[in-house]
Specification:
Number of strands: 0
Helix content: over 70%
Largest sheet: none
Structural class: mainly alpha
Oligomer: single chain
Shape: globular
Distance between the termini: 56 Å
Order of helices and strands: HHHHHHHHHHHHHHHHHHHHHHHH
Strand content: under 5%
Length: 432
């Protein structure tokens, strides 16, 4: 399909380079000779909202940007580039060395600096990630992207949050470099990198960063096209979780409902599609529970259980959605806890065993979810035992999640003499 010459004009090219999608929407609107009110009526908002969208450089409503851009005819690849972070500068990409020996030592120095940064803890690593999100670093040249993304997912599955944070800037840089190919697979891979970044940022309670990375994951998933629906589902899920943490429950539910309906209409002909559908329902059920929608939450949990019955009893390694019947039961623990019924939560999890879960992250999540239920049931000893089990499976799942760490601190303050509490508190505070 031919592209309107407008989008190859000097003005449009400059606006893309300046990362100003709102200004692109404005010139598209003016090209159609539409007023603000006309475009507002076509996309379902107020003229003032359109005016703000066109003037601002900071994106606050990605869905509205997509809707407005599509309405005025901004080509998908043009919008994609305008939404991406700015490229690395020549200064960032080039390092002048004093000698051949200096040049040969660069890889070693990079590894040393990476180790030192990781040792500094999540705070320093988050600053490094901020830099990568503000302006894409130069390609790292660290090796094949697929293998590194697999390794990064393995770090997430281990609960190795600090090491994953250290790896993310290089992954983002190289995934953006690869996405310049304009191939769907490379776009989907970039979406997967941003989804992974969002997932770990949610764990750390850094919701404003997680919103940014989730938005980008969704953008690149949409750009990648319908054959790669799994990437879109993963991105939608991460964004919905962020929205839930930001108390935008209705928006989260709408997003997840749309994603799950899209999967259902595909026919769920493969295990991968069934797993994605079950995962969407689990997330939707928990979101409904957080707003007290008891019947909806329980109905969706049961529907997720039906979808999971066709899947392996233990989720296959490497699967984007590691869901199984046991995983749905673990979600049920969280759903009942969110509904304020600790007894039902404990009952839902009474038959769960660590060996039912393929990763350290999920094994630890079983412990932390059961600990929350025991804590709500006012059973400090069982709470401490469950948290110790979680810590042994994956220390980061207890140490790095603010809500879980808060339970540890409160246990130590209120029940210092309870068996396991001092051991748990020492382990967590020593690691911080």
């Amino acid at each position: 399909m031919p592209v309107d010459p407008l989008w190859n004009s000097t003005t449009a090219v400059q606006l893309v380079a300046q990362r100003r999608p709102g200004a692109l929407i404005r010139i598209g609107r003016q090209h159609h000779c539409w007023t603000l009110a006309v475009l507002a009526d076509r996309i379902g908002c107020s003229p003032a909202t359109v005016s703000r969208l066109e003037r601002r450089t900071r994106i606050t409503d990605l869905a509205l940007v997509h809707r407005a851009a599509r309405e005025v005819g901004v080509p998908r690849h043009v919008l994609m580039t305008s939404l991406a972070p700015p490229p690395a500068t020549a200064t960032a990409a080039t390092r002048v060395t004093g000698s051949q020996r200096d040049a040969e030592e660069d890889p070693m120095r990079r590894r040393t600096l990476l180790t030192a940064t990781a040792a500094a803890g999540p705070a320093a690593l988050l600053m490094s990630l901020d830099d990568a999100l503000a302006g894409t670093p130069a390609p790292s040249g660290a090796g094949p992207l697929d293998g590194r993304l697999t390794n990064a997912r393995a770090l997430y599955d281990q609960g190795a949050h600090t090491r994953l944070l250290a790896a993310l800037p290089g992954l983002i840089a190289d995934a953006h470099h690869a996405a310049a190919s304009h191939r769907n697979l490379d776009h989907a891979r970039l979406s997967a990198v941003y989804s992974l970044a969002s997932a770990v940022l949610i764990k750390l309670g850094s919701y404003h960063r997680a919103r940014l990375t989730a938005d980008r994951a969704r953008t690149w998933a949409q750009i990648s096209g319908s054959p790669l629906a799994a990437a879109a589902a993963a991105a939608a899920r991460e964004l919905a979780i962020v929205l839930r943490h930001q108390d935008q429950h209705s928006a989260a539910q709408r997003l997840m409902s749309s994603a799950s309906e899209g999967l259902e209409t595909s026919g769920l002909r493969t295990d991968a599609a069934a797993a994605a559908y079950a995962q969407m329902l689990c997330t939707l059920a928990y979101t409904a529970a957080r707003t007290g929608q008891r019947s909806e939450a329980l109905a969706m949990t049961e529907e997720a259980r039906r979808a999971a019955r066709r899947l392996p009893h233990v989720a296959l390694p490497g699967r984007l959605f590691a869901i199984s019947l046991a995983a749905v039961d673990l979600y049920a623990v969280g759903v009942h806890w969110a509904l304020g019924d600790a007894g039902a939560a404990l009952d839902a999890g009474k038959n769960l065993r660590p060996e039912q879960f393929p990763t350290a992250e999920r094994k630890a999540r079983m412990g932390t979810d059961m600990a929350r239920a025991w804590w709500a049931w006012q059973r400090p000893e069982q709470t401490a035992r469950a948290l110790l089990d979680a810590y042994r499976a994956s220390p980061g799942e207890v140490r790095d999640r603010p809500a879980i760490r808060g339970i540890v601190v409160e246990l130590a303050e209120r029940h210092p003499g309870t068996s396991g509490v001092r051991e748990l508190h020492r382990a967590v505070t020593r690691a911080i």
